[in-house]
Amino acid sequence: MSRVGADERARLHEAASTLAGIRAATTLLNSPVAIGEERRSAMAAMVESELQRLERMVQRQQDAARPQVPGPRAGEMRPEVAEVIDLDAVVGSMVLAHEAKGTEVGWRPSRMLALGDSDQLTEALNVLLDNAAVHGSGPVRIEVRAAGPGDTSVEIAVTDEGPGVAPELRRRIFAWGVSRPGSSGQGIGLHAARDLMERQGGYLELLDANERTTFVLGIPMLGCAVEEADQHDTPARGGRRGVAA
Questions:
Q1: Which residues contact 205 (CB under 8 A, 6 or more apart)?
Q2: Which end of the chain has fewer beta carbons closer than 10 Å to its terminal beta carbon, N or C?
Q3: Spatial distance between the Cα atoms of 76 and 72, rounded to a whole number of angstroms
Q4: What sign results for the dihedral spanned by CA atoms 221, 129, 98, 140?
Q5: How many angstroms separate the Cα of 236 from the Cα of each of 48, 72, 243?
Q6: For residue 151, what are the contacts with CB-CB under 8 A and spacing of at least 6?
Q7: Distance CA 15, CA 175 (A)
Q8: pTM score
Q9: Pair type for strands 153-160 and 83-86
Q10: Which residues neighbour 240 within 8 Å (Cβ) at sequence distance 6 or greater?
């Protein structure tokens, strides 16, 4: 399959997942179930943010389908400028979207910033949460952390309580079309997520573990949005505050 064809299928895969999250959240917002005003406001903002991301996704696909205009000569290429990403905004939005779909997610805001493409990071994280919901069990835990002493990356680790990835599948898990035995998926998501991370100077890895499943997204780190949070803060459920991991 060509790169263009693979990108189109990956975007359709992501669009379907994004629409499912929007539909679930909208149903919840319109249901008679009592929702606190703060959570209702955060969920409504998430729906609007996801709709805007979906519009940008469609626009990029339309742009890609147009005849290509010859680019500048060698030496005239202007590098893309990475945006500053508020990781709490990205993770918080995905937590709300997946909680609306019925997934229990544990998360503690980090107040960390990264450099890259927020839409691509959101899409990659969405894939991991979808994957955990389908193949894992129990609550999903998200941890945002510095990659290590002296490292210039920040990591988002997504862990579920499932049986883990079979040894014979681990080294092929990111290949196009590879899925777990019995899965109804197309084997697109993880391949697309790794590609999206590598396009912005990041990475996606599966950690070695005998139990559970942990995927780690890595992206260039910028710093913290505000002063470090008090380590004794107690996170609240949902929204930007998340759930204690």
A1: 215, 216, 218
A2: N
A3: 6
A4: negative
A5: 22, 51, 6
A6: 221
A7: 21
A8: 0.79
A9: unpaired
A10: 42, 88, 89, 92, 109
